[in-house]
Specification:
- The structure is a single chain.
- By secondary structure, this protein is an alpha+beta fold.
- The protein has one domain (17-74).
- It is 17% helix and 36% strand.
- Strand 3 and strand 4 (67-74) form a beta hairpin.
Length: 78
């Protein structure tokens, strides 16, 4: 088990939505669900995903009370 975990972009659980947007940018979609908000970033048609011969890479961030409580990233199951 990890005591502290963060991504190469320094994203970790507990950061605010504004901090995440400052790191990742404004190119996201917002969804509402059981959590207050879900931000989804999609990467398409660039060198990174073409290297892996995939059409898209998705990063999804789940917020509750403006704090990051969960995130997922990777290639979707096709």
């Amino acid at each position: 088990m990890f005591e502290y975990f963060f991504t190469s972009d320094k994203i970790k659980l507990g950061i605010t939505k504004n901090n995440l947007i400052a790191i990742k940018g404004n190119n996201y979609k917002i969804k509402k669900k059981n959590y207050n908000e879900i931000l989804e970033y999609r990467i398409e048609n660039n060198k990174f995903i073409s290297r892996y011969n995939m059409p898209i890479y998705i990063a999804t961030y789940y917020f509750n009370n403006n704090k990051l409580i969960k995130f997922r990233f990777g290639f979707p199951n096709l």
